[in-house]
Design a protein that fits this description.
six-stranded mixed beta sheet, 43% strand, seven-stranded mixed beta sheet, 147 residues, mainly beta
């Protein structure tokens, strides 16, 4: 599928600790980093803290998710935003997050989660994966499970 995000591995595990190799970029509490479709071979480590009253406070925004080639390790109280994906529902099974618009599959991502996550969106122009929070840090709505 031409619009599949590949390879993108989202690892949501709040208890995980990370070594810092040369090809790693940290996004920590209070930081917001935006990247495009580049970054092949780069791991983005996104981790916040719980002092932000229920909002994701470390945010990685991917402006060209269709061509994104990096890997994302996401900890608690953090968010990854995929711009330009107009999803209105999702499913999660066998570590695969599938995003839908109506009955059409938009994208599939590998997601390994021990800590749980929420999928949200706003104005139908992005999808965000948020950990450690009840609702989106951007005032978005939680997407329903696809039926």
């Amino acid at each position: 599928m031409s619009d599949t995000i590949n390879p993108t591995n989202l690892i949501a595990n709040p208890s995980m600790t990370f070594a810092k190799p040369a090809n790693e970029v940290d996004v920590t509490a209070g930081q917001r980093l935006t990247v495009d479709g580049s970054g092949k071979g780069i791991t983005y480590v996104v981790s916040g803290d719980n002092t932000d009253s229920g909002n994701a406070n470390a945010v990685l925004t991917i402006t060209d998710p269709k061509h994104f080639k990096g890997t994302i390790d996401i900890g608690s109280f953090a968010a990854v935003v995929f711009q330009g994906i107009a999803a209105d529902s999702y499913t999660y099974s066998d570590n695969t997050l599938t995003l839908y618009s109506g009955n059409r599959v938009l994208d599939k991502l590998t997601v390994e989660s021990n800590g749980g996550f929420a999928i949200g969106g706003r104005f139908n122009n992005f999808v965000e994966l948020v950990t450690g929070v009840i609702h989106s840090g951007f005032g978005g709505i939680i997407l329903p499970v696809h039926t």
